What we know:
By secondary structure, this protein is an alpha/beta fold.
Amino acid sequence: MSFVAACVQLNSGREIEPNIRVASDLVRRACDVGAALIMTPEVSDMIEPKRPARLEKARDEANHPMLAAFRDLARETGAHLLLGSIMLRESGAERLCNRSFLIAPDGAIAARYDKIHMFDVDLPGGESYRESAVFRPGEAAVTASLPWGTLGMTICYDLRFPHLYRALAQGGADFLSIPAAFTVPTGTAHWHVLMRARAIENGCFVFAPAQSGEHAEGRRTYGHSLIVAPWGEVLAEAADGPGFITASIDPALVATARHAVPSLRHDRPFAGPVALDPPHR
């Protein structure tokens, strides 16, 4: 049961409505060329650098215009849509959540995933990020059924925690979604090798729709949306700027890769390292 997957690449701005229009147009165009699974990047709804404005603009799930628009879009196109993530306010919570949605062709929400790992770093060149100041981390890994296999859902910085992907693969995932808004320094150094590694070590397809270009307040994201096969081949890669990529996906290649290198069957429990006594001087 081969199918066509599409990764939409965005350059999201500060306001939600214009981002909905751009993303919806690209989803429709991807559907027109046969895509049955269409995915957008992390924070598809907005990239708002100012924390107070971000908190003010965020909506709850029941009233988020991009989620409502994508549910309608799924019904219109008949495709499975992964809304890579949007920022959501929850009642009584002091922080937002960064949530990914899998939407079925009938518009129903098939699965939700809240980003587990928070990007709290100081990068060379002066860039600093403190996601934990704005977002509360998720607490559970999520898989979801598709007509062609099982999807393991993650978001961006999760990419650097291979044990999460191992758990998803051991839990039955054939495909891994990694919608992202990677920085340029980290993307240049690590994006391709980490995406290929997650595919190879788990024998999974990797779908990585990304934000690209310069955003408000001079923030820049890396782009290079990728579709990677279970053996590690890059099947499609986006150029700079908004657009989309597609690739024909043969789910049988998951079994082929796992048969060739059956490491998922070779995992074993082990004791952790024992702290060594400091050397005597």
